[in-house]
């Protein structure tokens, strides 16, 4: 059975080859193609119908921001994860505004990358811890003139353990990293995350962090 279909987009051929080799050893992930710039990425995506695109941002012809923006219009079911060397604010927020569901740096571990690919395929957002912190901080700085409505108090409060999980989740930690930090089984953490999202009425981890901040839980 094939796994998540992935398209690799990066202008460095050596990096693409290394990434393809790295992903090939993991079950549940299938690299279906590669592209060296954003324009080629759009053609390959139309041809290969990937589930997830790992997209570099700074490329010739058409950069990753432009390619992501067009891809979200032309193939809205395809999930884009920005995979880049840079995490400056301009790149981060441009990628997220363009429609990327994730933002990772190229020094990410292979296990974290594979977990992110599967999460993106499920429709979840996946952010590098430093990027998650930027997103939460940016929302916290929004002017009070147009604040989002304060969420209603939780009908069912979070348990102490769920609060522990929430704090690490808000830092951008993966389930595996949370499990290691709290000395829990990864499956147990997954159940806690599911409960946290449900209690907060959040569709993904980023929204959960933002709503928790608005409720004063973080």
TrEMBL record:
Q: Where are residues bearing 4-aspartylphosphate located in the sequence?
A: 56
Q: Where is the Response regulatory domain?
A: 5-121
Q: Where is the HTH luxR-type domain?
A: 151-216
* Entry GO MF terms: DNA binding
Which UniProt keywords are present, listed alphabetically?
DNA-binding, Phosphoprotein, Transcription, Transcription regulation
What biological-process GO terms show up in the record? phosphorelay signal transduction system; regulation of DNA-templated transcription
Q: Which SMART domains match?
A: HTH_LUXR (SM00421), REC (SM00448)
| Coiled-coil intervals, chain numbering | none
The protein here is known as LuxR family two component transcriptional regulator
- The source organism is Pseudonocardia hierapolitana
Q: List the lineage, top down.
A: Bacteria, Bacillati, Actinomycetota, Actinomycetes, Pseudonocardiales
